[in-house]
Amino acid sequence: MKKANFYWVGAFMLLLFSAFAMRTNQVWEIKDGYSIKFISKDPSGQFNDFSGDIKFDPIDLTGSKFDLKVKVASISTGNGMMNKKAQTGEWFDATAHPFIKFISSKITKSDKGYDIVGELEMKGTKKTIKIPTVYKQDGSKATFSGTFYVKRSMFEIGHKSDAVPDVLKIEFNVPVTKK
Amino acid sequence: MFKKSFFHGITAGAISSIFAYLYVDILKEEFMYDFSSIISSTNVIGACIFGSILASVGFTLLKRFLPKFGEIIFSFLFAGITFASLVSPMLHKLPLDFDKYLTVIFPTYAMVLHFFPFVVWYTLKPVFKP
């Protein structure tokens, strides 16, 4: 009888721990091969230095969080002079604001994937934006990808110009592995 | 006159090609400025020969149709086109994953090449007297 009780207690404990384990959010590490591209009529390019912390679990969206940053100095437009110009005070002001930051505040399920709402900080200005994201998981690997638009005048980046459009398309593809 | 001018163009093209090739090769070997994936040697040689022959054709035609001011107009035109062509390397977009340091160097590197046909063509002008 005592032995049977011991097994029941053991089984209960196992169930309890596994339930806690399932609630623990998955931590992901950003792998090389990511791309953060900005696309417009002119200029187009990419940022080559991207890092951050990703906690994401499709079954626990409230506990998921994205804390990401992009190094402004890593901008690449394919033109050296344009790269330098982009880092000046008129544009991104890389000296005073070396990083573009994004911290999520709410993640919801959408038709195509997930909507990540959060605060985007560029050149010291913070704005809440929604980033529609497609999430594909394959075992211990996954990819976050998507497209969204940024209005540069909202962040006081550059001046009004016919040559450089106000709205730039951002395309991202971030491969990750489980930590 | 046209034959002389044509030989002038061919010779200027050949000599400027040699100098341009040496320039590209020395910078590549000595300073690791390797832009071979952007501008091939064939393109550099071709552009020097084409530019020099075009200059000779332009010179001949201007002198024939405007005997009094043709040469002066040509000088300004050749210099003007050479300077205007400098905009092209300044605006040129390299591949996004291209070496960051070389991306900064590229306009200056390429601008120098644009002067080779002009300098050699005028250097050889007293020799050919086209």
What's a concise summary of this model?
The complex is a heterodimer of chains A (179) and B (130). Chain A has 179 residues and is α+β, with helices and mostly antiparallel strands. In chain A, 16% of the residues lie in helices and 47% in strands.
Would you write up a description of this structure?
The complex is a heterodimer of chains A (179) and B (130). With 179 residues, chain A is α+β, with helices and mostly antiparallel strands. Chain A has a single domain (25-178), classed as Lipid/polyisoprenoid-binding, YceI-like (Lipocalin, Beta Barrel). Helices cover 16% and strands 47% of the residues of chain A. Chain A is built from 2 helices and 11 strands. An 8-stranded antiparallel beta barrel of chain A has the order 1-4-5-7-8-9-10-11. The radius of gyration of chain A is 21 Å and the shape is elongated. Chain B is an all-alpha fold and 130 residues long. Chain B has one domain (2-125). In chain B, 80% of the residues lie in helices and 0% in strands. Chain B has 5 helices and no strands. Chain B has helices at 2-31, 41-65, 70-84, 87-91, 100-128. In chain B, helix 2 runs parallel beside helix 5 (100-128). The radius of gyration of chain B is 16 Å and the shape is elongated. At the A-B interface, helix 2 of A face helix 5 of B.
